[in-house]
Amino acid sequence: MKENHQRRRGAILVIVLACIVLTAGVIGNLVRQTVLTHQQSKIEFAHSQLNVLADDALSYAIQKYTQSGTVPKETWTIPREEWDLNYEGRVEFSATENTTPETTIQIQARLFDGEETIQQLTRSYPLTTPQNGENN
After folding, report:
1. Are 38 and 46 in contact (CB under 8 A)?
2. How much is the mean pLDDT over the chain?
């Protein structure tokens, strides 16, 4: 009888330990999934901020070109303290001249963590210049 009681206690102990291991595994997986989801949402937020920054820079460059007839050659640097990101933002304005009478405004926007580029994107806008005798 005593031996039967000890077997039951041993079986119950094994079952309890198995439940604890399974519960710990499920909780660990939930924590890992939560961390991954949080990291992904931070990356998506940074990408949306970079999109807004590039779009605003392109609008600014087009406006400057419309006012002065020249594409600004500027670099904007946004320190991480000035927006809700853990990265520094940098935007570079440039113009490319093609063999045709068309100039293109190019905006290169980047997010940096130190010297490492985290994300980057480019916006381009073609500018057509009037040819002989054409009016806009």
Report:
1. no
2. 85
